[in-house]
Specification:
The complex is a heterodimer. Chain A has ten helices and two strands, in the order H-H-E-E-H-H-H-H-H-H-H-H. Chain A has helices at about 10-20, 25-50, 60-90, 90-95, 105-130, 140-165, 170-185, 195-205, 205-220, 225-255, and strands at about 50-55, 55. By secondary structure, chain B is α/β, with parallel strands linked by helices. Chain B has two domains: about 1-220, P-loop containing nucleotide triphosphate hydrolases (Rossmann fold, 3-Layer(aba) Sandwich), CATH 3.40.50; about 225-285. In chain B, the strands form three sheets. Chain B has a six-stranded mixed β-sheet with strand order 6-7-8-3-9-10, sandwiched between helices. Chain B has a four-stranded antiparallel β-sheet with strand order 2-1-4-5. A four-stranded antiparallel β-sheet of chain B has the order 12-13-11-14, with helices on both faces. In chain B, helix 8 (about 220-225) packs across helix 11. The radius of gyration of chain B is 22 Å and the shape is elongated. Classes of the chains: A mainly alpha, B alpha/beta. The interface of A and B includes residues 101 and 102 of A.
Chain lengths: ~260, ~300
């Protein structure tokens, strides 16, 4: 029943890209604005009281974390609300499915588009934090590919939810019960080693934790072999939810 | 020669039987209409032909290819204009056509040329860069039809192409259908407008409750099901109804408080009805609407 996606998935990506381009400035601005606010208000403001964490300033600690969480939100908003609007209200996929483009192609196209938004967010924030002296330029070679993987991961997870939600309001659960806790408990704002053992173990189950575990040391110029384990964790998580999203989208859209 | 051939086609949704073992055959270069009330299964049959939804049982071959195994190939030579407003609202008129051409893997240079031809044909050149949200209903429908032609399809499927349009826009769509048919395309449409079916369709399949009740040319259907003439009687009471039904023998149908009496000889028919009701009656030629009412009326309470 489930077929392999084809190269036609690029047409779905291109459609979304073309729409994005029309309002590129409006669309890109938030990628700079919100993370910058966090870094200034919390990093430099609250950071005065926090002092140093692990030998670096709080701003330097926080900035790579914000880069990760922004990538998470970029892909998640795209593959929940935006995909849902295209699917249900605008009937975009209905029209697409009268052509040789398949449901599998749509899923792959939407997920790669979600990851593209993560990448765009990642690039914008990296430029800002590098300019502020909060990240090492060489780390870009690790950070951007990992952000793409994180984008694919959160896009897959989001599309999985999109394939099962009964209405758009249901996304509130996804954001308040899953993404917000993840935002707060994955080591973006403080090292999770501070947390009680049980919460620490739970944090290991959160995909954002693994993204932060790679991006933060890399941004500081510390590279480690454990990156491979974190990346493998993310890759497996992505594969599982990509598969689930495909199967459930097919079930939702086929009849 | 048949280009589309359906055998024992069935569509079941959980407990609902939407299409029930229908057979149909559509010839190359004809305009075939599925006619029936809302919810009869017309759209479902069409969706199975253009491989949007799978058949539950049976099979349809389109140009020799089975919908069960060759859906992508079939989709590549079918154009579809649905009743849903499914134009891409984030895009302009031109972009809608361009992006849609992409979905068919049409090379850019060929697509651009074809799109320019379509914009001219549908008189949409002036609206090229208008977002589709700003178009009138008639223009949206024209764009929808234009979009369905972007892959130069052999078969064009139109689901209620004129529902909700004003009389001018309706006739523009009709002219388009006639022109496309003369260019050699096979056209399948659904409608619940009798005049539209009579005007456009070479043959009609009457769909009701998931079944195809009758197939034929409009005139053939009228003659076979109704005869040439109809007398429509309005009765006020149950009593009178029973009385009239008793007096008039033969072909008669009740829809609400109306009785439709059918016959070939207009004079005989009129005299018969006047005798039964005691007042002067008017006999008119039968239309497709009478066929529709006769075949579906008694079940619509």
């Amino acid at each position: 029943m489930i077929e392999r996606p084809t190269w036609r998935a690029r047409h779905i990506w291109y459609r979304d890209w073309r729409v994005f381009k029309k309002y590129a400035i409006t669309n890109i601005l938030p990628y700079f604005a919100e993370p910058l606010l966090f870094i200034i208000a919390l990093g430099y403001g609250l950071g005065l009281f926090v002092g140093q964490i692990g030998g670096v300033s709080y701003a330097q600690f926080l900035a790579p974390g914000i880069l990760c969480s922004s990538a998470m939100f970029a892909a998640s908003y795209e593959c929940t609300y935006s995909t849902y609007v295209r699917m249900i209200f605008q009937k975009t996929f209905e029209a697409v499915l009268c052509t040789p483009v398949s449901i599998e192609d749509i899923v792959l196209g939407e997920i790669t588009w979600g990851a593209t938004k993560s990448l765009m967010s990642g690039i914008c924030i990296f430029v800002v934090i590098w300019a502020l002296g909060l990240a090492d330029l060489a780390s870009v070679a690790i950070i951007l590919p990992v952000i793409v993987l994180a984008g694919l991961m959160f896009a897959s997870l989001s599309l999985f939810f999109t394939s099962i939600v009964p209405s758009m309001d249901t996304f509130n659960y996804y954001f308040t019960l899953l993404l917000s806790p993840m935002f707060l408990l994955s080591g973006v704002f403080f090292p999770i080693t501070q947390l009680p053992a049980i919460v620490k173990d739970l944090a290991w189950l959160l995909p954002l934790t693994h993204t932060v575990n790679v991006i933060r040391p890399a941004a500081m110029g510390h590279y480690s072999g454990t990156f491979i384990i974190e990346i493998a964790w993310m890759a497996i998580f992505t594969a599982i939810f990509y598969g689930l999203a495909t199967v459930l989208m097919k079930r939702r859209l086929l009849d | 020669m048949a280009i589309i051939d359906g055998r024992g086609v069935t569509k079941r949704y959980d407990s609902l039987l939407a299409v029930d073992r229908v057979d149909f055959s559509i010839d190359n270069n004809e305009c075939f209409g599925f006619l029936g009330p809302n919810g009869a299964g017309k759209t479902t049959i069409m969706k199975m032909i253009y491989c949007r939804i799978p058949v539950t049982e049976g099979d349809i071959t389109v140009d020799g290819l089975s919908v069960r195994t060759n859906s992508k190939k079939i989709k590549s030579f079918i154009g579809v204009a649905t009743q849903d407003d499914d134009l891409d609202q984030d895009l302009t008129v031109y972009e809608n056509l361009l992006i849609y051409a992409n979905y068919f893997d049409i090379p850019r240079d060929i697509a651009v040329k074809r799109i320019n031809d379509l914009l001219t044909f549908f008189d949409l050149n002036g609206k090229k860069d208008t977002p589709v949200d700003d178009l009138s209903g008639g223009m949206k429908r024209k764009l929808s039809v234009a979009r369905s032609l972007v892959n130069d399809p052999k078969i064009l499927i139109m689901d209620e192409p004129t529902t909700g349009l004003d009389p001018t826009a309706r006739r523009q769509i009709w002219d388009t259908v006639i022109k496309l048919r003369s260019e050699g395309k096979t056209i399948i449409l659904t409608t619940h407008y009798m005049d539209e079916a009579q005007e456009l369709c070479d043959r009609i399949g009457l769909v009701f409750s998931g079944k195809i009740l009758e197939v034929g040319t409009p005139d053939d259907l009228i003659g076979r099901v109704i005869g040439t003439n109809v007398c429509e009687l309005y009765v006020t009471s149950e009593e009178q109804l029973g009385l009239v039904k008793q007096t008039i023998k033969g072909n008669i149908e009740q829809v609400g408080n109306r009785l439709f009496v059918y016959g070939n000889d207009a004079d005989v028919l009129r005299r018969q009805c006047e005798a039964a009701t005691g007042i002067s009656q008017h006999v008119r030629p039968a239309t497709l609407e009478d066929v529709f009412l006769k075949l579906t009326g008694r079940k619509l309470k």
